[in-house]
User: Which sequence fits this backbone?
């Protein structure tokens, strides 16, 4: 089993707000992230897939295919978007880095056939990242 | 759904690697430049990884304000710009980065209740790093 990781970057805006909370609770729990006008990050995405090395190609996965899937399924949908307003997963879920990692996993997992998705890592800043392994 | 959240923190501290149980020659052979009696320092980067279910109401494994507050109070304030050899944790043990990892792991494990601690990873320099995720460490 060999693990292969591909990185990509996207920039997006978001804010944290739960309509079930009072304005005071939203402000207390989410702090500056509760500003309804939104704020943004340069996100770095790392997608790790795993699989046996194909004896003919020497590949775990064709990197071009992986790059195309990441571009089509993730970057085209998220890059330069306001996550709360333009990305359906976040119409009801709060676009935290945790939920972003889960949403990206759910977008990618059904599209990968040659290799198996192992981990989605999303950096919100260089000092904060979330890993999701598809665990329930 | 279970996710893993990692936050990076930095502090600067000095230390000297020296064991009273070894002779001068053994200390010198074992620790080399790190045995300099005047000590030396590093900019340490500490990665704290916690895990847990992503809360439906907040979308979070744990609130970063809680994690940041804990790490600042319990680790950065006591360690930053200090001589590690003079701290109580290192009165009886050599402040290698391995031991620093274990000491910080123990502090977070014992005191932080908002999420499950997975591991501590410390970069002593850009070229070396150490990880500790609990378990036997022969103390």
Assistant:
């Amino acid at each position: 089993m060999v693990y292969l990781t591909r990185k990509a970057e996207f920039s997006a805006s978001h804010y944290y707000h739960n309509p079930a909370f009072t304005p005071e609770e939203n402000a207390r729990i989410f702090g500056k992230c509760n500003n309804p006008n939104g704020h943004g990050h340069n996100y770095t995405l790392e997608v790790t897939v795993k699989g046996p090395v194909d004896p003919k190609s020497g590949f775990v996965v064709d990197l071009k295919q992986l790059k195309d899937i990441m571009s089509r399924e993730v970057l085209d949908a998220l890059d330069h978007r306001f996550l709360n307003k333009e990305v359906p997963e976040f119409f009801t879920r709060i676009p935290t880095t945790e939920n972003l990692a889960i949403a990206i996993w759910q977008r990618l997992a059904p599209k990968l056939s040659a290799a198996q998705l192992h981990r989605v890592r999303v950096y919100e800043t260089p000092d904060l990242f979330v890993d999701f392994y598809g665990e329930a | 759904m279970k996710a893993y959240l990692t936050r990076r923190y930095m502090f600067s501290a000095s230390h000297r690697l020296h064991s009273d149980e070894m002779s001068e020659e053994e200390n010198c052979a074992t620790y080399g430049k790190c045995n300099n009696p005047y000590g030396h320092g590093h900019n340490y980067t500490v990665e704290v990884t916690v895990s847990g279910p992503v809360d439906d109401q907040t979308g979070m494994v744990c609130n970063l304000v809680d994690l940041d507050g804990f790490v600042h109070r319990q680790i950065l304030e006591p360690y930053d710009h200090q001589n590690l050899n003079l701290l109580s944790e290192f009165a009886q043990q050599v402040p290698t980065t391995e031991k620093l990892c274990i000491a910080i792991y123990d502090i977070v494990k014992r005191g932080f209740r908002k999420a499950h601690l997975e591991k501590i990873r410390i970069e002593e320099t850009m070229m070396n790093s150490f990880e500790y995720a609990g378990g036997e460490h022969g103390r």
